[in-house]
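Let us practice reading a record.
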Amino acid sequence: MVFSYFAAFGAADLDAILSYHADEAAYLPAGLPTVPGKEANADVYRQTLASIRILPGARSTAEDVIGIGGFAWVRTDSHADVVDLSTGEQSAQRIREIVLLRNSSQSWKIWRYMFNTVDGNENRPTPLRDGAPAWECAGGGVAAYVDIACTAA
């Protein structure tokens, strides 16, 4: 589900992006105020999609996936080439995300989403726990854990 959200973001598909969010979702961007609620999140996504685009070939790795009751924590590390739509300038970015999911009505939805960008795209961190599994999701890979699926969109 998280990787399907990433694919929707990469495709700049606002309706699909929002379909993965709970009504009470909160967006916690690094260095900016929290954006509470799905409608306010829609405004932020509209602004973001009007200013940048993720180019094909982005890769994300789930480094931690932990489920507790009706909640799940997913920590990812993503590498993407991003284009600034106002200048046409491209840059390689490394983005770390924490996605908190909530299961309501038998469906996982993004409840809280936080990310930051890291200088330097070349160094990949190791998982928090030695030997912890990491699932690569690129070009149609499939992995699942606690009912959170990594699928091609």
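A brief commentary: The two ends are 10 Å apart (CA to CA).
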